[in-house]
Design brief:
Blueprint (H helix, E strand, L loop, with lengths): L1 H9 L3 H8 L5 H16 L4 H32 L1
C-alpha cells in the first residue's frame, strides 16, 4: 500500500498537509467502527459487516499513512 500512496504523499502542499493532519472521523463513524470492532473480536460479524469493517480499516490505514506523510512534510517545511 505504501508504494501506491507514496506519489500522493509526495505531492502534498503544506496547506493541504495541515488539513489532512486535522482530519478525524465523525462521532457516528467512530461509534460504528467500535461496534464492528467489538463484533469482529467476538467473531460475530455478518458477511456484510465484515466487508464494511474491512473497508473502513483499509480506508483508515490509508488515511493514517497520508497523515504521517503530511506530518513529515510539515516538520521539514517548518524547520
Amino acid at each position: 500500500m505504501n508504494e501506491l500512496l507514496r506519489p500522493l504523499g509526495q505531492s502534498l502542499t503544506p496547506d493541504f498537509a495541515r488539513t489532512l493532519v486535522g482530519l478525524k472521523a465523525e462521532a457516528a463513524v467512530q461509534k460504528r467502527m467500535a461496534t464492528l470492532a467489538a463484533k469482529a473480536n467476538q467473531g460475530t460479524l455478518s458477511a456484510s459487516e465484515k466487508v464494511e469493517y474491512d473497508s473502513c480499516v483499509l480506508a483508515g490505514n490509508m488515511i493514517a499513512y497520508l497523515q504521517a506523510q503530511a506530518r513529515l512534510l510539515l516538520a521539514r517545511h517548518e524547520s
